[in-house]
Design goal:
α15 packs across α16 and α19 packs parallel to α20. The chain is of the alpha/beta class. Helices cover about 35% and strands about 20% of the residues.
Length: about 575
């Protein structure tokens, strides 16, 4: 028998959590045809001797809602073995949307997800209005990964309430009925869930709070009712990290009890939350499971970190008046200007000015950043390496020291801040959350935070840090680690046809040189619409990635294949 593709002699880690074994994987018609000892030939073969063969990774927390409409490659996620992405998280997105409301959604996405307005204005085709229209537009796209969607609360609220949504007015009974209907319509058209946010950091660039914030329980229940009436979908939420964890979990549990639909939420080790809050939420998850509720926390495998630099979105002086006056200049001209002693003295005499308190807080946090000086990523910096500690050791003020460091490498030096999941200066809390039966590894945020965060490398980091390089007492067994990236994430959101290497499943596959797996330092590229910039992070050791039976990447290089398509929830229900 001739197959389309055979992967020979690999160490097969099939995504089920069962022990690895050596064998072959055969592919025909975009499906896995056989696993084990495969006789016959194929149009293409990959020799995977000594390499891992795993299912493609399923990333359930991304923001490719816009990028999927203007670009064919969902990089940087697709560079890290991801073969399916779920978009529309955090309650933000671009559908449903009436023509006169587009600017509201663009400004919201600019502030919440750090995507420049000009990129969206230039890139978004806006060939939709309703959510089913949006899915129809996506269905025409040819991509390097499969994309699945969720309907975002803020977009629904604006679609129904217009300016009243932005003013955070309470919805009427008629408004709630329309929201419920829109969610039901989206799920029936193929969305995988509804999403919302209660995080006070989610604001427009000007500082206006996202429309989903302050929504009362009855409004959240209306969204859940849309899932109930469609008899499908997951409710995803970003809790308010500044609130009491017990109160936030009670709200999440109340939604799960109200609708009896699965609830998924962001779970982080957040500074200054009493408890610690994450541990209280783990206890809540355990009780919910015992009570028959479907609830799962989404956990990041490392600090949720932010990057600063003159060529990125923020740095120590990005909101100082003198810097704002030169911010639009090319980097080389800015650096030349900042090396002028008179300009330096003027800027150092100023204070940051911005209408958005989150921006001011992030600028102040620059004091806790560290430099990656050896050309290798360091996601676990020692506190002695912080900017403020180094400034003190150098006998300079923080502002003087930061000014000089920003000009290193002709202004291209980047600085890393472990913002969440690093409260104690280590990853012990992360390991405890990752090992819990009611959590799943997620939160990579691909397609967002182009100039601030580069966490789409989470899958690579997770395998490298926790399944290979961790001390024996904290190491996650490789079969369990692969299941965390594949079958567990797929099951969390109802993707029933992928995440396992088994006959009849989708032929989404990775071939990995596990010993050689290594992240590189992020780099800045200018390849977005309107010349917009973003950070990309490459990896060594992923030998091949296969989507729908076609090889999309070899050793990190795109092959030109674009087999990825829109995945509709309705198709999953039929498959199940």
């Amino acid at each position: 028998m001739e197959f389309d593709l055979i992967i020979r002699n690999g160490v097969i880690v099939d995504g089920s959590g069962k022990p690895a074994f050596t064998g072959d994987v055969a592919v025909s018609g975009g499906k896995i045809a056989a696993v084990g000892k495969v006789e016959g030939s194929a149009k293409q073969e990959i020799d995977a001797d000594g390499k891992l063969v795993t299912p493609g990774f399923v990333d359930i927390h991304t923001h490719f809602d816009g990028q999927a409409t203007w670009e064919n490659r969902m990089s940087p996620s697709s560079n890290h073995g991801v073969t399916t992405v779920l978009m529309g998280n955090c309650g933000v997105g671009f559908a449903p949307c009436r023509p006169h409301q587009r600017d509201m959604l663009v400004k919201l996405m600019e502030g919440v997800e750090d995507i420049p307005e000009v990129v969206m204005v230039d890139g978004l085709p806006w060939n939709w209005e309703t959510f089913p229209d949006y899915l129809d537009a996506l269905e025409k796209r040819e991509l390097d990964v499969d994309v699945a969607t969720q309907v975002p609360h803020s977009a629904v609220r604006i679609f129904v309430m217009g300016e009243r949504a932005a003013r955070h007015e309470p919805p009427t009974a008629e408004d709630l009925e329309q929201m419920r209907t829109l969610v039901k319509e989206a799920i029936e058209a193929g969305a995988f869930g509804v999403t919302t946010s209660r995080n006070m950091m989610h604001r427009t660039r000007a500082g206006e709070l996202a429309p989903s914030l302050y929504s009362e329980f009855d409004e959240l229940c209306a969204l859940m009712d849309g899932l109930v009436e469609a008899n499908a979908g997951v409710f995803q939420m970003i809790p308010a990290p500044s609130n009491d964890a017990g109160e936030e979990f009670a709200l999440l549990r109340g939604l799960a009890e109200h609708g009896k639909r699965p609830v998924s939420f962001t779970l982080l080790d957040v500074p200054n939350q009493p408890g610690p809050g994450w541990r209280a939420m783990l206890r809540g998850l355990e009780q919910a499971r015992q009570d028959g509720l479907q609830m799962r926390g989404q956990v990041a495998p490392r600090p949720v970190g932010m990057f600063y630099g003159l060529d990125l979105s923020l740095h120590a002086f990005s909101s100082h008046p003198s810097y704002k006056a030169i911010a639009a200049l090319p980097l080389a001209e800015r650096v030349a200007k900042m090396r002028d002693p008179q300009f330096r003295a003027q800027l150092l005499s100023e204070s940051p000015e911005d209408s958005n308190p989150v921006t001011l807080a992030l600028i102040d946090a620059f004091r806790a950043t560290s430099e990656w000086e050896d050309g290798r990523p360091n996601y676990e910096p020692d506190r002695a390496s912080r900017m403020e500690a180094r400034a003190q050791a150098a006998g300079l003020s923080l502002q003087e020291y930061a000014y000089d460091r920003l000009l290193q490498d002709d202004g291209r030096r980047m600085f890393y801040l472990p913002a969440a999941n690093y409260t104690e200066g280590n990853l012990s809390a992360v390991r405890e959350m990752l090992g819990h039966p009611d959590t799943v590894m997620a939160l990579a945020d691909g397609g967002a935070h182009y100039g601030l965060i580069c966490d789409s490398s989470f899958p690579t980091y997770f395998l490298q840090r926790w399944a290979r390089d961790a001390a024996e007492h904290e190491r996650i067994e490789l079969p369990k680690a692969i299941a965390e990236l594949t079958s567990k994430t797929a099951a969390t959101v109802g993707l029933t046809d992928r995440g396992l290497l088994a006959p009849g499943m989708k032929a989404d596959i990775n071939v990995i040189d596990f010993d050689r797996l290594q992240l590189r330092v992020p780099e800045i590229v200018y390849d977005l619409p309107a010349g917009g910039k973003r950070m990309l992070q490459k990896v060594d050791g992923i030998v091949a990635t296969i989507v729908n039976g076609r090889i999309t990447y070899r050793n990190g290089e795109h092959t030109g294949e674009l087999p990825g398509r829109l995945v509709r929830r309705s198709a999953m229900q039929l498959a199940a």
